[in-house]
User: Fold these one by one.
Assistant:
Number 1:
Amino acid sequence: MRRLLNLVISVIAGLALGIATSALADRESLQAFVVATGGTFTQLLGNASGDSQIFTNTSDGSDNRALALSGGGNSGTDRGAILLMYGNEHASQAGRIYLYTGNVSTGNLLLNAQNTSATVQLMVGGSAKWTINNTGEMLGAGTSTIGWAVVDGTDNTACSSQCTSPAVFGFNLAAGATAPVIVGPSDATADICLCAGAS
């Protein structure tokens, strides 16, 4: 007979974990019951009947709690990286999710699509809006332009005065059109300007 590992984890007001195991028959599985101040979090992990999930014990329409997964001994960036998730009826952060790195100089945020054919996507409403492909290009899903304009105005004039919308940067064409030099929006040597708007 194989052993069933029934793992009970209790976390009460920051006290140390208490772990109890018991042997049961038929299949190997893992049950985790987490008890914390303000609420009970329960879910079967490794259940052979379906996908594993972790969630709070709130009911639909009353999901007013938060769930934090931390790499440290407490849910603060001074202790480690955190994944923080809020229920849809939370009083101040309804439906939000936050991903924090630890507050240390090496606390980088790394997104890694391991397979060399994979992509990284930013999605809204289930549809990809921005995609970083496997060659490093960042592609937008829109079929229209972003609404920026190239303004060929007065030579040697700062783009901040030539653009009616915010100026992004300018091109100095003193060396010719085949050798443009990018200059700042306030640089008075600009001949052509890129403006963050229609003009």
Number 2:
Amino acid sequence: MSDLSIVFMLLAAAIAMFALGRPRMDVVALLMVVALPLTGIISVQEALAGFSDPNIILIAALFVVGEALVRTGVAQMLGDWLVSRAGRSEARLIVLLMIVVAGKPDPTFVGFEELLAPIRSATTLEGALLERGIEAVCSCRDDLVMVPLENPLPVLPEARAFLRRNEWSKASGLRLGSEVHTREFYRPDLLVVDRSLHRALLLDIKRSVASHKPKVLAELRTRMMAAALVTRDWLERECDAPPVERVEIAIIDGSGDPADHARAIFALSDLDQLIGITGAAKAIEALRHLYAARLREILLPRCRSIAGVAGGSGNQRSDPGTGTTGLDERFDGRDDGSDDAGGVIGGITRNGAGSGKAEATVLRHDARVSVGIASLGGRT
């Protein structure tokens, strides 16, 4: 067999594995690096020479930046905005994407860039705050398991077809295989397994559901339901998670608007019942109040500066010369003289541990706590 035939065979195998998503992309790349020298196509030195290429290092760094944008919610927020504006028009989506990538400044807000930066950052960070806050609250119950998602859940065409003909109440007990090739996937913000109820819960957390069009929310609900049908099989195959008998979905609306359970939209006040923790909703609401207080501390001096009013607050921590927003600072607990900074667990802690009843409360009323959660991505 000629070298060219071997190269084409390896290329076809790599393309097939990339398309199937199994194994992971980085594993496929390493397999090709090993396979080429083993087949004698190139030498070991030639195979490893690529790692010293600056372009390879740049691409690796871009993966890190991309993952950071996904974890902080920036990519999700931008993607939701683009889809809501573009609708079903591919041409409109391409044009909007080009405009966003170009980063052209908005002429309407010339002179107010210093104010807009923290506002835009605040909305993104607040979404991350809700997600990480709920994750921290779930840790109050030992029988709640947070399942990490390395890969999104598959959305099968068969599941969509079944949901078009049946109500969710009839479909929730259905179990479909997850090892089926599909081009559509869905990644929930949180996947929670309740070991006591043998139930899995897919959570999609929105800062405000009202900012999304009804058809976008309807499509989101359909994707969540379709993904839920393969979740039981996926948990058994891919994760070391407890067995579940049913999978439920919930779109959490953090704005405080009334719930619409028929559309799978749950208010923040429903959180206690959803995850079985008394005081969960109040803890998240208190966390948002702390975040809002810190945000006002940052915005007030900037508003005064733009308006030309003297006597701006000295609490502003951002440097206008660097363009930082002041929201990306990490809470370290040193400014208030506290010697127990390590006790702040995402602004939320377990209350009444050992009493057999899970409760969530805000541990300390410090306005920086919630900012720290958002900027740290929920790390404790």
Number 3:
Amino acid sequence: MHVGKNYSEHMKSHNTSIISSTQKKILCIVILSLFSVGIIFSQTSVPKGAKLKTIKYDHRLLNYNYTAVGYVYDKQFVVGQEIVFLGAYRDTLISGVYVVKNGDSFLDGTISKKSPGSAGSYSLRKGLFKVTNNKQGDNLTTIPTEAIDLKIETSVIREYYYRDYYQSLYPMIMKKQQGVIFLKIDFKDRSLETELISNNSSLGADDVIESSQKVKLNYKNGDVFVGSVQKGSSYASNAEMYHPKEGEYKFATGDKLTGVFEYDHPVIGQYAHVIYIPSKSETVFSDGTTASGNWLSQYNFTDKEWGQIRASCPCKSPTEIRDMAIRFDKERNQKLEENRLAKAQVEKQEQTAEQDRKNILVKKYGNYWGNLVYNEEFTPGMTKAMVKEILEKQRHENYYKKSVSTISGNVIEMWEFDTSLLRVSSGEGALSIQKQCPTLVFKNEKLTDIYR
């Protein structure tokens, strides 16, 4: 049966799917000469008499059902021409140019797989594949009665695309250089490189990367990290990008930080205003000096001060952070010293004022009574003027209700605390003032009784 039109439409659709997946920037691994240097075979001219046929291989008992579409001549597939193998549901199993090497059959072409559902995974491999369906297991047969299930083995992989619903959309490349296989990913602000530790082409890219201790991150700003890496947290905007985990981070400024890292940036925390140095680290500054651990902890800056530092400094390298911290600490200490001196000056002035007041009271009332008034000690025998000196200092004079009476020719004057005169009529404030304000009784201008 001739299926030239259907075959052409299938190949057009197949090629379009490859191009569109690339245009969509799917997560892809391009493996250039990954396992060996293979030859890319091209199609040859179709021999006269060859026919494009569709051959169905279906054996219900042995549980296989697939179809081959290709040029056949003298009951054999034509070498140098393309063959497409379709599954039971017309899905493409493999397609490529038919090649025979050392008596074995190969297809130089493509294997694509897509899991069910629009959000499933998709993979595409280009390379050289050993393809057999005869009972001897070394060749392809066009005769269904002599065939068994189709067997595909990878010989050389040149390109490998992979897309997963849960994975990133960054291009990845694998290539061999001087016998070593490298994997590379280009992210927005950095690229990742590492050696491939396994020749297993089905090994997930994440497994390859996260198991390596020699991952290299090349940042667009000139920074370079070498060591182990990990992905960001799932809720972060850069969750799909790998960031330093443990190793050596070299800054473009010449600084070097070696240790265990916690966040995406080696010296900027989870939030942009937070600066940190890993506690398990060694720092070499651009001037050659060194420091161990979190040397920033010695400054004891508050969160507010860190915010001020972050706002006034790019702080992209340890030297920048150190210099800014030293400068900020110096300015802070200078302000603290200025505040201390100003406070000391005020205290000195207050002490001087207090001493002057004491000297005035002693001069006015004598040493004994002057010291009692200065110490605010109500004492029988004090004059009303002395008592007023104490109340004025305490600012309690206006809280007293005063009454005067005459008994047996003696003038009796009573000063009683009145809560109604308080601005704070109740509560702890009023109670505290009341305790400081005893009832005072005067007889002929002299304090005689004190009631608390």
